[in-house]
Structures are given as structure tokens and as C-alpha cells.
Amino acid sequence: MWNKSCKICCRYRTIHEKSNEKLNFDKDKKIKDNILNNKTFAIIKPDAIKNNYTGLIFDRILKNGFSVLSAKLLKMTKKQAMGFYFIHRNKPFYDELTTFMSSGPCMVLALEKENAVENWRKIIGSTNPEEAKDGTIRKDFANSLSENAVHGSDSDENAEKEIAFFFSNSEVIGNQ
After folding, report:
1. Does domain 38-171 have CATH number 3.30.70.141?
2. Catalytic annotation on 16?
3. Which CA distances in Å does 113 have to 18, 22, 64, 72, 122?
4. DSSP class of residue 130?
5. Catalytic residue selected from 57, 150, 151, 156
6. pLDDT tens-digit profile of 116-142?
7. pTM, two decimal places
């Protein structure tokens, strides 16, 4: 009973199923990209903690529509700071940066919002607080270029790496 039309039908199903697998793969990739696009990493740096700005900065995070997926108050060791800022190891400010970041407590945060990296960077403002727009976190709370109150990931890929540097999967809401 196996005839030519059965072969054509079976072949069509196989091709159709493979194209659906491709579509599902593309959908899964879009979902993964969207999830990455919705997370960022932030640090409230030692200068902001010391000056009691933590609550004010945290309030800005929430008022700007971010969800906090995880947060830790910690004191980085020099070794942790060197590991976290390893990408800057050949820059002249590396030692000053890692010394500063290990000088006192800081708060590390995994944040979520649509276009999280881009939105967080708008809220924090320019790295140099003198160049930051009025109303940004750095304009309002930073002491100087080297003590600029907060850190923000510069890309979705770095946000993922930076979150993983400080948090296990089980510590980040939605990653369990």
C-alpha cells in the first residue's frame, strides 16, 4: 500500500517538522535574547554607601521601574575587585579603582526592566559626574570621577557575566 503519494506526504511532513524545529529554535533564541536584554548589573559603590546614599539610589532604581532580582551588601576583597575589573588591568587607573572598590562595603544588584542596560545607563549618567546630566545618579551623588557612586554594565553580555560574578543562579529571581 505504500505508494507515491504516501512518500510525498511523508517527505513533506519531515521537511515541515524540520522547518518547525528551526522556527522553535529561532523563538528560543529570541526569548533568550529578550531575557538577556531585560537584565543589568549595578553596584552602589563604597563612596555612596559611606555617604548614606544607598536608600536614595535604591529609591531611584524602583521609581524608574526596575525590579530587583537580587541584592547583596558586601565588602569586596582586593582580589575580587581585581577579578571583577580585570578588563581594565592595563589601564593607568586600575590599581586606584581596585583599591577604592575594596575600601568599604558596596551593594551589588541584579536588576530587570525592558532594555535594562540602556535604561540603567541613562539613569546613572556619564562616568564623569561633571559631565552627567542633571537628575542622574552620578550628577546628584558622585564625589568625583574615581568615586562616582555607581557602576552599570555596558552591554547585555557583560551584564550576564557581571551578575554571574557575584550571584549564583539560585540567588537571582527567575533563574531557578
Report:
1. yes
2. no
3. 34, 28, 9, 19, 13
4. T
5. 151
6. 999 999 999 999 999 999 999 999 999
7. 0.79
